[in-house]
Structures are given as structure tokens and as C-alpha cells.
Design a protein that fits this description.
By secondary structure, this protein is of the alpha+beta class. It contains eight helices and five strands.
Length: about 220
């Protein structure tokens, strides 16, 4: 490879390291071209799976400030540069490796921390970002639905159930409770205020006597 081509390849790998949320090193020896294409499709558009030269990757990693990769850069190497959800990519690699034993996951890096092959297997068992967001949305929708139902119930009943709603929100996971708590607090304040107004003793307006505007005496005119 010409020097200019090597420099361009190093610059490209360096940029991939810098632009990625995580990177996973694999050995692909024994995989066919068709299997590599299948792997790339399974990882999605947010992950770039690139076959690299070890010597150039060592230089690129150093230029990008990535340390601890040298020992992993042995044998035929391909790197998955992950720009999306690292958990989803780890799941994709782990699933593919189970069906295709020639793919060997050697290690990786995420947020500046070196990950072992065991670390990546544990990462693959976590719930993806989409699943966690779905759960948070479910908790939020459930809490808002309960809050809305309070307005349809008698205000006295709503006032009694406010405390239970707040307690349930506080017991939720921190990630789920954070977006819901302000809404519940606002609902609680408004419903409680309405309940106080509804249950307050009604004031009877004082009646103001109305003076009879008609004259009580009649003036008699005698013609005489």
C-alpha cells in the first residue's frame, strides 16, 4: 500500500473511532463474503463493520486517543464502529456469533473504557434504549391516565386519592419517575384546590330590603 493510501486509511479509521459511541473488535477468520454482508445488514445503518489492518488501526487508535487496543489487534481483524445504541449493536454481534462461531468477539471500548469479551456479553443481555424508553413512556402514560380519571370522579374522592398517586409515582424507578413527577404534582395541586372550593360551606347572600317606590298616601283634590 502506498504511503498516501496508508495515510488516508489511518485518517479514516481515526475518524471512525472519534465519531463512534463504542467500538468492538472481532476476528472474522472463516466467515464468507456473504456472511459478512449478512452481519453488516443485521447491525443496521448506525454501525459500520470494517475489515482493518492491525498496524494501521494501532496508529489510528493512538491518534484518536484510544488506548488498550494493541493486544487485541492480532490476526484478521474487523471493527464494529457503533454510532447508535451500543446495547443493540452488542446484541446483534452476540446473536450473529452464536449462529456463526467463526465470528469471535475479542473486546471493545465504550466511553473511554476498555471492554472485555465477557463485558460485551453482559452488555448484550441488557435492555436496549428503545425498550427502556418504551417502559418509561408506559409508566408516564399510566400515571397521566390515573391523574385524568381524578377529574371525572367526585372532587372529595379525588382529594383522598392524591396521596396514593404521589406515593406510586415516587416508588417508580428514578428514570421513569423524573418526567412524571412534575405532572402529578401539578395535577395534585389543582385537584386539591378544586376539592377545597367544592367542599367549602356555601355562603348565603344577605338580602337587601327593597323599598316600596310607590306612594302610600293619595292626595285627594276636592273641588269645591
Amino acid at each position: 500500500m502506498a504511503r498516501a493510501d496508508k495515510a488516508a486509511a489511518v485518517a479514516e479509521i481515526t475518524e471512525e473511532f472519534r465519531a463512534s459511541n463504542a467500538a468492538v473488535l472481532t476476528e472474522y477468520r472463516g466467515l464468507t463474503v456473504g456472511q459478512l454482508k449478512e452481519l453488516r445488514r443485521s447491525l443496521g445503518s448506525d454501525t459500520t463493520y470494517a475489515v482493518v489492518k492491525n498496524t494501521l488501526s494501532k496508529i489510528a487508535a493512538k491518534d484518536a486517543g484510544v488506548e488498550g487496543f494493541d493486544a487485541l489487534l492480532q490476526g484478521p481483524t474487523a471493527i464494529a464502529f457503533i454510532k447508535g445504541d451500543p446495547v443493540a449493536a452488542a446484541k446483534g454481534l452476540d446473536t450473529f456469533a452464536k449462529d456463526n462461531p467463526f465470528l469471535v468477539i475479542k473486546g471493545g471500548i465504550m466511553d473511554g473504557n476498555i471492554l472485555t469479551a465477557d463485558d460485551l456479553k453482559k452488555l448484550a443481555k441488557l435492555e436496549s434504549r428503545e425498550v427502556l424508553l418504551s417502559k418509561v413512556a408506559g409508566v408516564a402514560n399510566a400515571a397521566l391516565a390515573k391523574a385524568a380519571s381524578l377529574f371525572q370522579a367526585p372532587l372529595s374522592k379525588a382529594a383522598r386519592t392524591i396521596a396514593a398517586l404521589e406515593a406510586q409515582t415516587a416508588a417508580a424507578t428514578p428514570a421513569a419517575a423524573a418526567p412524571v413527577a412534575p405532572v402529578v404534582a401539578e395535577v395534585a395541586e389543582e385537584v386539591s384546590a378544586n376539592a377545597e372550593v367544592a367542599e367549602a360551606p356555601a355562603e348565603v347572600a344577605e338580602e337587601t330590603p327593597v323599598e316600596d317606590a310607590s306612594a302610600e298616601s293619595t292626595e285627594e283634590t276636592t273641588e269645591g
